[in-house]
Amino acid sequence: MVNGFLENLGKFEIGEKEVNSLSPLVLAYIGDIVYEVYIRTMLVGRFNISAHKLHVKAINYVSATAQAEITRNIISRLTEEEQIVLKRGRNAKSSTIPKNASMIDYKYATGFESLIGFLYLKKNFIRLNQIIELSICSIDRKE
């Protein structure tokens, strides 16, 4: 069953040229999902607690405020290309108004999600995993 899922996902491959031409907000759209699934999976593996408590813990990693902090903590460890993708996402004009974060944090979070989406769509899974692990460590150190 899992192989079927992965095989079907492969039908929707996006070429490198197309990934490079995607809007930063489109990259953030997919990056948001990829990062959230990773975090939720990590938390389920770490804790045997209720779904509500898992959700509360997830907020520490996935909120705009947390992602902005992550971005500030890891930006110096990014490659030049990754920093460019992050900055494009951060500077993208969005019509969304953040509810629970400052506009600055929201923009940094969008940049972070753009980077995650970029690495995912490029299938650079080794680097994607490194960035997410850096992100988790950044938040875990704070707690």
Topology:
Layout: H1 2-9, H2 16-21, H3 24-46, H4 51-62, H5 64-74, H6 80-91, H7 103-121, H8 125-142
Would you kindly provide a written description of the structure presented here, covering whatever features stand out?
By secondary structure, the protein is mostly helical. The chain has one domain (about 15-140): Ribonuclease iii, N-terminal Endonuclease Domain, Chain A. About 75% of the residues lie in helices and about 0% in strands. It has 8 helices and no strands. It is globular and about 45 Å long. The mean pLDDT is about 90.
Which features does this protein show?
mainly alpha, Ribonuclease iii, N-terminal Endonuclease Domain, Chain A, 0% strand
List segments where confidence is low: pLDDT < 50 over at least 5 consecutive residues. none
CATH class: Mainly Alpha
What's the overall average pLDDT, rounded? 89
Radius of gyration: 15 Å
Largest sheet: none
Global morphology: globular
CATH topology descriptor: Ribonuclease iii, N-terminal Endonuclease Domain, Chain A
What sequence of helices (H) and strands (E) makes up the elements? HHHHHHHH
Structural class: mainly alpha
Second rung of CATH, namely the architecture: Orthogonal Bundle
Question: What is the CATH superfamily label?
Answer: Ribonuclease III domain
C-alpha end-to-end distance? 38 Å
Number of beta strands:
0
Strand content: under 5%
How many helices? The count is 8
Number of domains: 1
Determine the fraction of residues in helical runs and give it as a percent range. Answer: over 70%
